[in-house]
Design goal:
alpha/beta; 46% helix; globular
Length: 227
């Protein structure tokens, strides 16, 4: 540990006001929380049994817990650009597997939001950088719904509809995963839902795309498991 202490003593980093503020805020939050419940952190450290997995956008304006008034320990969260469910994304699959098979969550919500930068980028052709490879998955959604989207003349309305279509397709993609279908086959209580959050209102819209079995999937996606 001496080399760590030595390294720290040589570090000339000077905290800017924002960085110092968030450290101070943490201390104040701990003090405030303990004043209300002296056992809060002791109880929180015992483990987690959240009933919900939230798959949301990385946008800093969409905080999962705050939107639904949930407490710490009530929401297991995965976030990425434009709340995507990509079947080759081992990060997302690992989170989903842990949530479903270990934590035994009963609900998975894919929550997009109006004004999503990832969706907006997918509507255009400008190269942004490495993120272009991620945005391509979102462009696939536009291709699937091109006729309906192109028929919407108002750009804002088309943008909002694209956000909604994207969420709907991600819920379908969740239902197609072997993780979710295996849970259903084993009789596990698990429901999938699609929401969109309004940045300018604070309200969520339930898109009424809900799954609790694979019955609403095309037969080609219904996996048959060997006994």
């Amino acid at each position: 540990m001496q080399w760590i202490a030595g390294l720290a003593s040589k570090n000339k980093y000077k905290m800017d006001d924002f960085y110092k503020k968030i450290l101070d805020n943490n201390k104040k939050w701990v003090e405030s929380t303990l004043s209300r419940d002296p056992n809060y952190f002791k109880n929180l450290a015992q483990g987690q049994t959240p009933p919900l997995l939230w798959i949301g956008c990385s946008d800093s304006r969409v905080p999962a817990n705050e939107i639904i008034g949930a407490k710490s320990g009530e929401v297991f969260v995965h976030r990425n650009i434009a709340n995507m469910v990509v079947h080759s994304d081992m990060n997302m699959l690992s989170v989903l597997d842990y949530a479903v098979n270990v934590l035994k969550v009963k609900h998975v919500i894919v929550c997009g939001h109006y004004g999503c930068g990832g969706i907006l980028a997918a509507m255009k052709n400008e190269s942004i950088g490495i993120i272009d490879n991620w945005i391509r998955h979102i462009k696939d959604i536009y291709r699937l719904h091109k006729k309906g989207l192109d028929s919407i003349e108002n750009e804002t309305e088309r943008f909002n509809k694209f956000v909604e279509f994207n969420v709907i397709e991600q819920v379908f993609d969740l239902a197609k995963t072997s993780i979710v279908q295996s849970a259903w086959r084993n009789g596990q209580e698990l429901s999938l839902h699609g929401w969109v959050y309004g940045l300018n209102s604070g309200f969520v819209t339930d898109l009424n795309v809900n799954f609790s079995s694979d019955e609403d999937l095309d037969e080609v996606y219904q996996l048959k498991f060997s006994e």
